[in-house]
Amino acid sequence: MHAVPLLDSSANDSDTPAPAEVPLRDLRRVTIHPDHWYPLAWSREVKRGKAHGVRFAGEPIVLVRTASGAVFALEDRCAHRQVPLHAGVVDGESIRCCYHGWTYDCTGRCIDVPYLGRERLPNGVRSYPCREVEGLIFVFPGSAVLADETPLPSLGSVANKAYKTRRFGREVKCHYSFMHENLMDMNHQFLHRRQMGQMRARSLGRRRGDGWVEVDYTFAREQGKQPVGEALVFGGGNKGSKGGQGGKDVMTVRTLYPYQTLQIRTSDGTLVMDLWIVYVPLDAEQRTNRTFGLLSIKKPGIPGILDLAWPLLVWFTERIFKEDRWIVESEQAAHDEQGADWNQEVFPVINELRDLLRECGVPEAPAAN
Amino acid sequence: MHAVPLLDSSANDSDTPAPAEVPLRDLRRVTIHPDHWYPLAWSREVKRGKAHGVRFAGEPIVLVRTASGAVFALEDRCAHRQVPLHAGVVDGESIRCCYHGWTYDCTGRCIDVPYLGRERLPNGVRSYPCREVEGLIFVFPGSAVLADETPLPSLGSVANKAYKTRRFGREVKCHYSFMHENLMDMNHQFLHRRQMGQMRARSLGRRRGDGWVEVDYTFAREQGKQPVGEALVFGGGNKGSKGGQGGKDVMTVRTLYPYQTLQIRTSDGTLVMDLWIVYVPLDAEQRTNRTFGLLSIKKPGIPGILDLAWPLLVWFTERIFKEDRWIVESEQAAHDEQGADWNQEVFPVINELRDLLRECGVPEAPAAN
Amino acid sequence: MHAVPLLDSSANDSDTPAPAEVPLRDLRRVTIHPDHWYPLAWSREVKRGKAHGVRFAGEPIVLVRTASGAVFALEDRCAHRQVPLHAGVVDGESIRCCYHGWTYDCTGRCIDVPYLGRERLPNGVRSYPCREVEGLIFVFPGSAVLADETPLPSLGSVANKAYKTRRFGREVKCHYSFMHENLMDMNHQFLHRRQMGQMRARSLGRRRGDGWVEVDYTFAREQGKQPVGEALVFGGGNKGSKGGQGGKDVMTVRTLYPYQTLQIRTSDGTLVMDLWIVYVPLDAEQRTNRTFGLLSIKKPGIPGILDLAWPLLVWFTERIFKEDRWIVESEQAAHDEQGADWNQEVFPVINELRDLLRECGVPEAPAAN
């Protein structure tokens, strides 16, 4: 066993300076920064005239779709007895608590207590900036004054008719940082050997800017044939053999805090796959996240063929995601047990990613005396 | 979110003095006072020649019904290896531990260890004062010397042949104080709108005495018709229309620590419904309680009609209790998450009830250094 | 309730000196000593070319059976991302982590990282001494330098063809010390009264040596007839009536730390039953153990009759073990709730056993600052 946790040991990484003597913050305890737009639900989950309870990093939030179809977001507990507002009744453009009928408008103001005069109304609840776009309901959980100046993220090719998009997501029981590292370290193809055959990733280079880091890969098949499902997702051999020398596809994985993208381009620059994904912490400890992903595939020349193959693509991606979910949950379980980050990371871009996630997260509170 | 928990904020309550500057005890951490008689089981649960394990506020207690039919109550663990005595064997008027056969009489004295001489018998276990009345087995978990001078509670109309009584109860995962507040604040009729239609409670006045607080209500139907189940429980419209001006029924809810009653009287003073209820904490944290309730309904003039309608009454009350259980468990869950009482109570009698429950509970231990 | 936990109170035990004034260590918090050989799996659980994850006192250990059939034991987490190696791939005589393919040999050395040069290989993982004997895989979890000088335990009559052996085991949710005390205190026959009828154990005497304690018993039937299952296990009445005066069987129960044995000999000295058993802590708190038992029965004169009766013996022993598991788990539950050992032990050999288990366990760490 290790006497001392190894944080981002870079002893084997000749092109990175040696780590400073000060111990690094445990990345798995870095809180995600709330001053960004986070999707908290799919539009279809919030039906007209209904309320829907969600969580962001432990904060209960109710999404309300009113009679007019608009959506607003409030703290999900009545100011009176703290029970969830999402169990209440949508009444026109307001929501009424299920217990004693206290009523709130879209700003969180209490506008009615049935057994009190209007002149004695109590304080209301917090409201959150809320926007709906491309089937996602985004909430700004941080400082509300920053919401207007903070742009919504670009959602990849989801609005481009030349692409077909799969919306997917699930709960994963791990810190969001494991998700970023999993996707960015393509050496983990070994995990998917049963789905993809033995592929070897080759890192072409990495770049880092303000709030982002990215890396390019090509892939070489070591053994076996390309599965049909994979050909659909990543592009088939007819566009340029991955195993050959010329005309290789390039995959670029980027974390643009707090979002992540994965794009595959053919040698002629065509974007054949475009994934946008984000990992939203659910609990206060940030040990669970809900993934919202938009996977856009460029439609091939023959109309309808992608629709035909879609069930196969869904099946293939689900199997990949299942393996990824299992492994990141195993990482979290190891961290829970060890109580610290014992990782011995040797891959340079992952160490850069880890620095980025630390820097962009909520700064550590100064130590109490 | 609230920076500071709001304890019994009475800012909107003009007829109550402003709260003192000293922070109030968190009511949800007030331990119920053990120097009262509490029912711990229904008589039918403790069969002749059998032992039955129960809990009071975390203390394991075994109820033993001996060969003669008498019931006694002991600490539910053998003095030897601490295993539950309720798994043992009732032997005449004593109980024998299932493991090595240590035997205790009704006072808790160890009267036999099969492999030791009688002259070397070890210490026994604690016994509790125990009484059986009206199908309930009451135990006095506090200071035994106070048991004789403390009367058993009056159980309402259960012994009156003019009434038919439903015995009911269940475990509810919340502090007992939420139960008292739920029943006493009849503005929560909104919660039962699907069962009862929209009713509005009107508080007629409240009274407070030594160890008790009570409040009177009338009800006005705002919408819909009276359901049949409700007519059975609360009395039908033929006895005086609740919606009309004259002849209204009056409901009185009283907490007489630690018990609670709810009575409905018609305008001519007839007691048509008489509920006695108590909420017995099960765990040491007092986050779970077992309810014991006796709901007595005055038999109408036509013989047998109440028996005929009984299944409907059971069905109706079960649905009401299910909603109440769900909401008080939601309140407890909110308290667990918030770690403090954020309630913003505005209804005067509930604030009086909260004071009563604080005053009658176990006094706070002086702070350790 | 007891104001003070009673640790091994021996007030009633005239032949044992009064306990010293210093409070005894809580036996249920004494950590088992790792400098012994412990079985961590049955041989059949570790198939050729497969890895199998186990635990010793919270330490995750992977048992690997290579292509050649040899077994080795490593720390069950990859040095890279800490995920369990037992989910990996056995590759010849090495094991490859399932995630990014890091590879370890039988000494725990990292011999390959697919995307790093061989000259930059990172540190590996811990290995454990490992031996396979009589269908059990033994590991030495303590100081590896002591493994060679520490003999494997003698496994009773398992290798003797005159005996037939049942291998059994299960997880039991209690500290290992409860298991030792359960088996050694034969006054607990009362627990098995439904399986065995009422038997009274009589202690003939006890002996203690360096690292061991043992006690002899005879049994007298108080009531009922000997069940057939019991006759098979403990020997039937035709070898000497247990209830009679002459020719009694003698049972010897011995703890030879950390193992335990139970042997029954007839009056002519024939060993008719020979049990070897050990209780391996699984979790770091040592609140759960896995039992590995070898129950050897002397074959009677008529060939095949024991095989014929074997299912009955299995059924009988399973019922006994089920009762024992339930009671020791009840003891653990009581200890968890009480937070201390309140036992009031009066049987001398059990108090000696408790001393032995304390002395042989891991010494208490000196108090911090």
TrEMBL record, chains A, B, C:
Location of the region described as Disordered in the Swiss-Prot/TrEMBL record: 1-20
Molecular-function GO term, any one: 2 iron, 2 sulfur cluster binding
A GO biological-process term: methylation
All copies of domain Rieske, residue ranges: 37-139
Domain of life: Bacteria
Hydrolase keyword on record: no
Protein name in UniProt: Vanillate O-demethylase oxygenase subunit
PANTHER family, per the entry: 3-KETOSTEROID-9-ALPHA-MONOOXYGENASE, OXYGENASE COMPONENT, IRON-SULFUR DOMAIN CONTAINING PROTEIN
Keyword Lyase attached: no
Coiled coil: none
Taxonomic source organism: Cupriavidus basilensis
Keywords: 2Fe-2S, Iron, Iron-sulfur, Metal-binding, Methyltransferase, Oxidoreductase, Transferase
EC number: 1.14.13.82
